[in-house]
Amino acid sequence: MRSLRPSCCNTRSAWRRDLRRVGTAAGAAVLLACGGTGVPHGPYARVTIPPGTSFRAAADSLHRAGFVAFPVAFRLYARVTGRDRDIKAGTYVLERDLGWNAIVDALRKGQGIERKITIPEGWSLREIVPALAHALGTSEDSVNAAVRDTALLHDLDVPTPTLEGYLFPDTYIFSYATSARTAVREMVRRFKEQWQPQWDDRLQQLAMSRHDIVTLASIIEKEARLPEERPVISAVYHNRLRAQMPLQADPTVQYALGEHHDRLLYKDLEVQSPYNTYRNRGLPPGPIASPGRASIEAALYPASVPYLYFVADSDGHHEFRTTFKEHTEAKAEVRRNHHR
Questions:
Q1: How far is CA 240 from CA 4, 202, 291, 294, in A?
Q2: 8, 159, 295, 333: which one has the fewest Cβ atoms less than 10 Å from its Cβ?
C-alpha cells in the first residue's frame, strides 16, 4: 500500500489530496511529523492580525508574510487541535521558522505582539508609569523600580530620585516580553539622542545645567498651549530667575499637590513642597513632566522680551505684561471676557 506520509516538500495540491485521504486527525499528525511549517528558515518578520479577524483570514495573512506555506492545511490543523478560535489581534514579530504549534499558541496567547505606546509631551510619571505597565503587560511596581534606576540617574547626572522629565515623549514599539527596565532605558536613550551637542555650549552661556533646562522646559510644556508662545513663556521665567523673583508657575503647584485641580485655590498655593514655586524662589528640584524638543529649545533660547507676567485667556493664548499693574489689568480684562 502507498505510504500516507507526504514529503515535506510536496506541492500544495499533494498536501490537500493527502489531507482528504487520511482525514483531518491523521492529517494533523502527519503535518506535525514534518515540522508543520513548509517555509524556509529565516529571520524575524511581522504580520498584522486586525481585530475581529477570522482564523481563515489570519492563516492567509500568515501565508502572505511567509510563515505558513499551506494555509488550508494550517487551518485544518488548528481546527483539529481545537485552537482555531479566540485569537488575539495585534502586530506580531515572529521567527519565520516557527512550527505550526508555536504559531497557533502565539495567536491565542498574544505572544510576540508588539507593544506600542505613545507618550505625549507634558506627561508626568504619574501618567507614564501606569500607561507603560499596561502596554508592556507588567506591573506598575516594576516600572516604578525602572524609573529609579540608579545607573541611569548617575549617567544623566540627575539629582532627583526618579527619571521624571527624561523619558522622552514619543511613540515607542517594544517587542513581546520587553522588560520595564529595557523600555525605560530606550526612552532615556531617545532623550539623549534628541539632545544636541551645540546645546551644551548654550548651557555655558546661560550658566545653567542640563537638569535646569529640562526642569524649565517641563514647566514651559505644561504652560504653553500655542507653539509660538513657548519662547515668550520661557523669557518670562528667565527674566524672573534673573530678577530673583519666584516663578509662581501654577503647574508646579499641581505637581506638588499630587493630583490635577481644574482650578487652583489660594490655599493650594500654600502647599508645603519644594516644587511649590509660589513659596520657593528659583527652579524646583527637578522636572514636573516630560518636555518635548520644542519646549527644550524654548528653554535654551528664550525670546528677547521684557515680560515678567502672563495670564491665560479662555481660548488658550496668554496675555504678557511687564509690570504688575499691567498684569492686574490684563487679569481683569480676561475675567471680563470670560463672563461675556
A1: 86, 19, 20, 21
A2: 159
Quick one: 213 and 225 in the same domain?
yes
The three cell numbers of residue 30 are 502527519
- The full DSSP string for 112-137 is TB-EEEE--TT--HHHHHHHHHHHHT
- Taking only Cα atoms into account, the Rg of the chain, rounded to an integer number of angstroms, comes to 29
DSSP assignment of 177-216: T--HHHHHHHHHHHHHHHS-HHHHHHHHHHT--HHHHHHH
| Residues spanned by the domain of 180 | 115-194
| The dihedral formed by the CA atoms of 201, 204, 206 and 210, expressed in degrees to the nearest 10 | 80
In sign, the C-alpha dihedral spanning 232, 203, 200, 125 is negative
pLDDT score at 314 = 81
Taking the C-alpha atoms of residue 159 and residue 193, their distance in angstroms, rounded to an integer, is 21
Structure pTM? 0.77
Do residue 173 and residue 240 come from a single domain? no
Q: What is the pLDDT of residue 340?
A: 63
156 vs 148: CA distance, rounded Å: 12
Residue 338, pLDDT > 90, answer no
